[in-house]
RNA sequence: GCGCGGUUAGCUCAGUUGGUAGAGCGUCCCCUUGACGUGGGGAAGGUCACAGGUUCGAAUCCUGUAUCGCGCACCA
């Protein structure tokens, strides 16, 4: 016990994360080292990650926590390796999600819709709401220990990003990549807006499937309410059952509201195997039908309006909501003897909005689109379509997707990509810089003058998100940041938004900047509960990262999300797992206590004997191994290797075996041992710092001898 | 329908270029004036989904099957 005066008093108690985390974060933030401009030394090589911006109105969940842990590990490693390291934070307005949330709350409290409130007032309320909740998410991000450069914080709707979005739109319009057209789009009657193809989520549902007599044919449908306008009957040209009918043939028949002249259309789209092999089409309310109609130049008639109400074409049913009308229409057809049979157990997928859950009603609408097939000149002078370019940069490995198997998924998506509908009929978002006066259209940022009306629509939130890697660095201005930090090194995100976001960034950056947005895409898995189920409110199995941080510390929370989870594989998380890693933080704490209790600063002057040199070399070899793993983005293996070395080798063997020497009389052997243990401790702390920054920094702050005041900018160990 | 991934100890998963299996947690037993009981020591526990094939040798490579999950498409 004679050495007790050597060690700071805290080490006599177990490590308690709550005593240290906020003060440690303050030390880091106060040092200014989160900002690459303030980093010590002459740093040349830049290393950049742009944080996938969480929703401004959101709260931190385990998916965020995993993302923050992974990115912070990469960033802290790069920073310690002497790179000019920037991790750029931001938040996302999440247009539709945020607006419907605020609208919902206003309706609940004041029974007012957005139309009653007006555009200006609604936007004011949304801003109030986002300002308030912004601080919440930012503080929660800090609790994870994230070493983000807050001085560069960006918001998708702030002035700099506004400028970028406007510039992007105008440029792409001028290049002919953006056009306005009447096309069938996914209309969400609940949200009163269109949504993009990949914002649709298919949900299984059981509905009656009706077979109706349509002249000489039997047709099937789940949606009788769309059938009023069905005056085309489609069959496959190779279908011999219908060889007697010819393309364009007119057939008189009795239909819902009386007699009708139907026209026979022969088209490959009719599948001979499905149903009766014959179908009628509703071009105004079905994507496939619309395409058939376009191929044959058929009439397109709207049957249902934007609110889901039947139009005059429905005759006596006009003005009725489709939900009500369905059964009445069936009744009428039944009375007319036109119902052949009803299958009550038909299971099919219905399209719903990914945000908000409204059932999608395809509609023809005049919308803005990005043309993905048009050939344009890229900044490098090459000629290609957006689609081709997006494929090319991954094929030629300018962008490396991990795990690699997602490359195939990516190609598959690109190949099926259609023009991207970028206008939304909501109010919260970047308003489209298009101006109308009578039949004239002008696309420019400011009003062309008197009498010009700006387009009411706003841009799809993914349009502005697509610019994120460079809009955050000041584009379209040619800033130093843009020059230094773009392309970014890694884009780290969940595999669930590979298409939504990753692909869109590639599209925007290659065209507008002439660079890939990032060199590496690292896709992490979804965080699931201990049994592998998705975390959800209804299952009640949500593990709150903030609760875990409070109970076990941010370090333990980070480790639990990183260890044992390979790229792209889902992470199964249980509270026990987090608790287990808290023990490791304490272990490290006690290792330090032991080393310091038996330490004498003077020992650092001696030279290591052969045996001790070997021990230090062993730790340095580990450093190389860890570095290799991190370079390959195998953080799980890097963390695992360090964990096992520190606990299984350093603590269990090296420390144990040195006890008899340390307890003995002062000697060269003892001094050498003291020095070796101290050096190994230093190496261990450095290697662990990216994974568990708080406890390692807390220990570092108490060390009697070190090369930098702050571990965060200490030099990364190598095997030399 | 097309594609992808998983299937290894009770649970969660490793297993790098093929050399007859590992970790953590859990379970059971032992150990407290020890740096740390948030600890230490030890034990039990696996026909590596199944069937073929290649090979001196297969958890690992190939083919097929089953099963679970995911993505895309279709959904009249």
Nearest-angstrom radius of gyration? 32 Å
Oligomer: single chain
Instruction: Identify the CATH class of the domain at 193-363.
Output: Alpha Beta
Tell me the major beta sheet. Answer: 4 strands, antiparallel
Strand fraction? 15-25%
Note poorly predicted spans: none
Class computed from helices, strands and strand pairing? alpha/beta
In the CATH hierarchy, the third-tier topology of the domain at 193-363 is known as Isoleucyl-tRNA Synthetase, domain 2
Distance between the termini: 36 Å
Number of strands: 27
Based on the coordinates given, report the CATH architecture of the domain at 193-363: Alpha-Beta Complex
Q: How many helical elements?
A: 21
What is the arithmetic mean of pLDDT?
A: 88
Shape: elongated
CATH homology-level superfamily of the domain at 193-363:
Valyl/Leucyl/Isoleucyl-tRNA synthetase, editing domain
Question: How is the largest sheet built, in terms of strand order?
Answer: 6-5-14-18
Helix content: 40-55%
Detailed description of the structure:
The structure is a single chain. Among the domains are: 170-185 and 366-459, no CATH class; 193-363, Isoleucyl-tRNA Synthetase, domain 2; 568-713, Isoleucyl-tRNA Synthetase, Domain 1 (Orthogonal Bundle), CATH 1.10.730. α9 packs antiparallel against α10 (406-415) and α19 runs antiparallel to α20 (668-688). With 720 residues, it is α/β, with parallel strands linked by helices. The protein is built from 21 helices and 27 strands. The chain is elongated and about 110 Å long. The strands form 10 sheets. The chain has a 4-stranded antiparallel sheet. A 4-stranded mixed sheet has the order 10-11-9-12, with no helix packed on it. Strands 8-7-13 form a 3-stranded antiparallel sheet, covered by helices on one side. The longest helix has 29 residues, at 635-663. 40% of the residues lie in helices and 19% in strands. The structure holds one RNA strand of 76 nucleotides.
């Amino acid at each position: 016990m004679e050495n007790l005066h050597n060690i700071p008093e805290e080490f006599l108690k177990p490590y308690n994360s709550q005593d240290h985390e906020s003060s440690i974060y303050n030390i880091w933030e106060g040092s200014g080292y989160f900002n690459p401009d303030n980093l010590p030394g002459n740093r040349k090589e830049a290393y950049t990650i742009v944080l996938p911006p969480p929703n401004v109105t959101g709260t931190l969940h385990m998916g965020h926590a995993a993302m923050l842990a992974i990115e912070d590990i990469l960033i802290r490693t790069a920073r310690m390796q002497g790179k000019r390291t920037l991790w750029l934070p931001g938040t996302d307005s999440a247009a539709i999600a945020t607006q419907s949330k605020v609208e919902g709350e206003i309706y609940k409290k004041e029974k007012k819709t957005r139309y009653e409130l007006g555009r200006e007032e609604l936007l004011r309320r949304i801003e109030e709401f986002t300002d308030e909740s912004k601080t919440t998410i930012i503080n929660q991000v800090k609790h994870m220990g994230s070493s983000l450069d807050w001085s560069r914080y960006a918001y998708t709707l702030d002035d700099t990003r506004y400028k970028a979005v406007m510039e992007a739109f105008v440029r792409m319009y001028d290049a002919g990549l953006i056009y306005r057209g009447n096309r069938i789009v996914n209309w969400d009657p609940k949200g009163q807006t269109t949504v993009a193809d990949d914002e649709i989520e298919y949900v299984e549902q059981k509905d009656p499937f009706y077979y109706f007599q349509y002249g000489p044919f039997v047709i099937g449908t789940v949606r009788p309410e769309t059938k009023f306008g069905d005056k085309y009957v489609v069959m496959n040209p190779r279908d011999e059952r219908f060889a007697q009918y010819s393309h364009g043939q007119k057939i008189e028949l009795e239909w819902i509201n009386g007699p009708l002249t139907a026209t026979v259309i022969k088209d490959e789209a009719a599948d001979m195997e499905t149903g009766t092999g014959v179908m009628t089409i509703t071009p105004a309310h079905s994507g496939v039908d619309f395409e058939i109609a376009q191929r044959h130049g058929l009439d397109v008639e709207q049957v249902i309006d934007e609110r889901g109400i039947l139009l005059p074409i429905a005759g006596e049913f006009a003005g009725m909501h489709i939900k009500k009308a369905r059964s009445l229409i069936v009744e009428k057809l039944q009375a007319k003897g036109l119902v052949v049979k009803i299958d009550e157990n038909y299971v099919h997928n219905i399209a719903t909005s990914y945000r908000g859950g409204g059932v999608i009603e395809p509609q023809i609408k005049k919308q803005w689109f990005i043309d993905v097939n048009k050939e344009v000149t890229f900044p490098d002078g090459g000629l290609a379509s957006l689609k081709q370019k997006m494929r090319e940069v991954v094929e030629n490995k300018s962008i490396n997707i991990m795990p690699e198997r997602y490359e195939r998924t990516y190609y598959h998506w690109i190949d099926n990509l259609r023009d991207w509908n970028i206008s939304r009929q909501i109010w919260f978002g970047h308003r489209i810089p298009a101006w109308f006066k009578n039949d004239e259209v002008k696309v420019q940022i400011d009003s062309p003058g008197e009498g010009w009306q700006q387009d009411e629509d706003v841009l799809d939130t993914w349009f502005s998100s697509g610019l994120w890697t460079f809009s955050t660095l000041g584009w379209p201005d040619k800033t130093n940041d843009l020059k230094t930090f773009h392309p970014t090194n890694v884009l780290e995100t969940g595999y669930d938004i590979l298409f939504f976001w990753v692909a869109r960034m590639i599209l925007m950056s290659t065209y507008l900047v002439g660079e890939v947005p990032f060199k590496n895409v690292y896709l992490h898995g979804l965080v699931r509960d201990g049994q592998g189920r998705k975390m959800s409110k209804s299952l009640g199995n949500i593990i709150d990262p903030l609760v875990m941080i409070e109970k076990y510390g941010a370090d333990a929370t980070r480790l639990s999300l990183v260890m044992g989870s390979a790229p792209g594989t889902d992470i199964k998380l249980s509270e026990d797992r987090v608790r287990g890693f808290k023990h490791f933080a304490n272990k490290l704490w006690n290792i330090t206590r032991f080393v310091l209790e038996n330490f004498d600063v003077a020992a650092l002057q001696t030279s290591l004997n052969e045996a001790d040199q070997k021990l230090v070399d062993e730790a340095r070899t580990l450093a190389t191994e860890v570095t290799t793993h991190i370079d390959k983005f195998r953080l799980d293996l890097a963390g695992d290797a360090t964990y096992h070395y520190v606990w299984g080798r350093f603590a269990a063997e090296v420390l144990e075996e040195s006890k008899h020497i340390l307890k003995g009389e002062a000697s060269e052997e003892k001094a050498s041992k003291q020095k070796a243990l101290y050096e190994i401790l230093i190496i261990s702390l450095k290697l662990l710092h990216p994974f568990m920054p708080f406890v390692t920094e807390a220990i570092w702050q108490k060390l009697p001898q070190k090369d930098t005041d702050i571990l965060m900018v200490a030099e990364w160990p190598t095997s030399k």
